[in-house]
């Protein structure tokens, strides 16, 4: 799998509706599900695992959890599904995650992480990867990161998505933990130097990804979260610039039509509503963006204001000409 450009997992954002939107703009980039906790699958909604469509590949299923048996059960279930890789979340800093002892909290428990990853690899027919931070709390990232990666990779794990900052679990909210402490890309570069045989994908704060691409050329890829969600239209050159694949881009009008056609195939109102919200960023930069966002917010679920939105897009181009 070519991980040159990945869209980060984001709870309440990278659901199947957003992924459908992203696939209108880039066919090659690697998509992630939101993190799904093993318990929510084993004791709750197994259908959560089924929420993808064929057009989404390549796609990575991200799991949260700390119990090797539960993780292996979910990996077994996923063997028959269309995921290309399964990723264990070792980077999420939320208090819920911390009190449940999964996500970033696991970076202090390499033995447990190894047990989880061994169980997952034994059960899964798909590659297993991890998403980590540089460290947590008082860990010294110069020593502890290499030690952690060395231990984890000794189980056979070859792919590391690295959010280039520590997580401060006791001091900061999840939101602040995405801005503080400062990003440290050079530590990620050093990690790749130390572990040249591993695939290292850098994440965190990358906005101008076409320009910044060459800064990360020693790494195996970049992972973009919030910028991709807020400005999806910017993704339209990813396939040509990161994958040298020059397919014709979809116009804003055809993306809009495709989204509304897709909504017709969904049967839950709240799924359509979330899809309409994900479209908000698509029109950023248009003169009529605000009017379009209001229409998206007010659309009744079954008769969204598709034609009005298309008229507003056309109006924008007419005035620009
Ligand atoms: C709303 C939101 C939800 C997130 N949910 C997840 C998640 O489910 N799993 C995960 O590994 N990271 C999650 N993250 C972290 C992102 O994957 C990413 O590491 C972080 O946003 C930094 O990248 P960025 O600066 O490009 O956004 C989330 C981030 C945001 C903003």
Structure description:
There is one protein chain. This protein is α/β, with parallel strands linked by helices. The protein has two domains: 5-243, Alpha-Beta Barrel (TIM Barrel), CATH 3.20.20.70; 252-320. The chain contains 14 helices and eight strands. The chain has helices at 16-23, 38-42, 68-78, 95-99, 110-123, 141-153, 185-194, 209-212, 226-230, 238-243, 252-265, 269-278, 289-298, 306-320, and strands at 5-7, 31-37, 59-64, 85-90, 128-133, 159-163, 199-203, 221-224. Strands 1-8-7-6-5-4-3-2 form an eight-stranded parallel beta sheet. Strand 3 (59-64), helix 3 (68-78) and strand 4 (85-90) form a beta-alpha-beta unit. The longest helix is centred in the C-terminal third of the chain and has 15 residues, at 306-320. The N and C termini lie far apart (41 Å). The mean pLDDT is 92. The protein binds flavin mononucleotide. Residues 8-11, 13, 34-35, 62, 89, 91-92, 131, 163, 178, 203-206, 224-227 line the site of flavin mononucleotide. Flavin mononucleotide (FMN) binds at residues 8-11, 13, 34-35, 62, 89, 91-92, 131, 163, 178, 203-206, 224-227.
